[in-house]
What we know:
The chain has about 230 residues and is an alpha+beta fold. The chain is about 60% helix and about 10% strand.
Amino acid sequence: MKRVYKRVTSGPADGGFGVALDGRPLRTPGKVPLVVPSAALAAAIAAESDAQEGELRPAAMPLYRLAATAIDRTAARRLQVVAEVANYAGTDLVCYRAGEPPALAARQQRVWQPLVDWATQRYDAALAVTAGVIPAGQSPAALKAFATAVAALDDFRLTALHALTGACGSLIIALAVLERRLDAEEAFAASQLDETFQIEAWGEDAEAAARRGALAAEIAVAARFLDLLAA
Length: 231
């Protein structure tokens, strides 16, 4: 699909903020006008659109894709998305520690335990930590607390949290980004702690580097999306 528009603008639209291409509203893949809650997010999506030259490249418009997902998909399957995100609490990455080597266990304790402590206090949800892969068996009260926190989010923040949770493999790390306890780089480092430890010992191949790069980019986009919503 080629770019056929010349002028891109953003501004108030239908109770929120939209983007216009030559005066016509930018639409989602579901053909719905793209309206977001924040002027800053609308302006950033407009900038993505204006940066397109020749062939339109959806991969170069990640903020648009998240916003469109919130409108087209999250709103329609909200209960499913909430469940998918909240279910990470039952087997969260930061609750599973290595027995050895001691250096890895110490690093996990140093990076992950403050996040566990923060989440326990912030959401009044005590988390059990275990060594190895045997399920920690989180309490029903803790699982309910996290599910309630996730369900309270609007569609846009829920969409970003869904992306973060999948990329990080951890609801706790994703919530820490949402609450500005971690930035994108810190979240990537925490989520990739085990892999980074192995790379330091054995090196990294091109396939693993590409995968990690894609995850880092996904986390960065979702974190920026949340920042723009709050701007």
